[in-house]
Amino acid sequence: MPPHHLTAPGFGPLAGIGDEAAPGADGQLAALRRLGWTAIELRDVDGTALADLAPAAFGALARRLADGGVTVAAVASRIGNWSRPVTGGIGPDLAELDVLAERCAVLGCRLVRIMSYPNDGLPEREWADRALARTAVLADRAARAGLVLVHENCAGWAGDRADRALRLLRAVDSPALRLLFDIGNGVPHGYDAPVMLRDLAPYVEHVHVKDAVRLADGSTAYTLPGEGDAGVAECLRILAAHGYSGALSLEPHLAVRPHEGLTRAGTDAADLFVRAGQALVALLKDLSGGPA
């Protein structure tokens, strides 16, 4: 079997956010090939967000992926993310979603990562109301485009609490809104990822894999999957037990962390990405050898 099928029973393909390995498409695809994987999650190419690529550059990217037999598991958008507080207008998010709807149709991709708007001084209730209302508008537009928005446990109103994520799903009440669970986000954000995932697992449509430890000064250091304190193996067991069948998308944060302005993407970035992918494969082999 090709290595990209070496997953625990029932999981979908192994993928990775390509710009964590290299800025350009050539380097991103080369890192995937080193792992034997044939799925990618798209965020930035040559430092430009997917939605902002010039039409000719996007067309060239789409052809490269098709020619290489690489599928797109998801698109990591900036909608509602750490750079777009809830006090800003929704216009940039709607515009980005419209572009991504066209581009996802070309790429054969239906999942678009979103977040739920960090606060910017608003009272708690107003923050909640705005985040819920905006997500409903976005989900309605996504539904009409045949997309599914996957909300990540990261920046925003529903980012670090399971009860809020569930309230978001209930309030929007649309099949075009599901959850993206990033296993490693609990460490920097201060919660226990396996505990949160037990409440959210039935609604998870996409998964990011990273691992980390909290340092004595309160900062976060990222590690290979399975070597940190995020509970990667336990989260994978929980997902398997709930019948999760989506992709596992590697986002190791070892060389590239956009929210911190870290974009060191030399040859060592690709090597670190590949090492993280190999560690994930090793974890999955261990899991598949034991009880689910």
Automatic annotation (TrEMBL):
The keyword Protein transport does not apply. Residues 29-260 form the Xylose isomerase-like TIM barrel domain. InterPro entries: IolE/XylAMocC-like, Xyl_isomerase-like_sf, Xyl_isomerase-like_TIM-brl. Transmembrane segments: none annotated. It holds the Pfam family AP_endonuc_2. Keywords: Isomerase. The keyword Isomerase applies. SUPFAM superfamilies: Xylose isomerase-like. GO terms for molecular function: isomerase activity. This is Xylose isomerase. It comes from Streptomyces malaysiense.
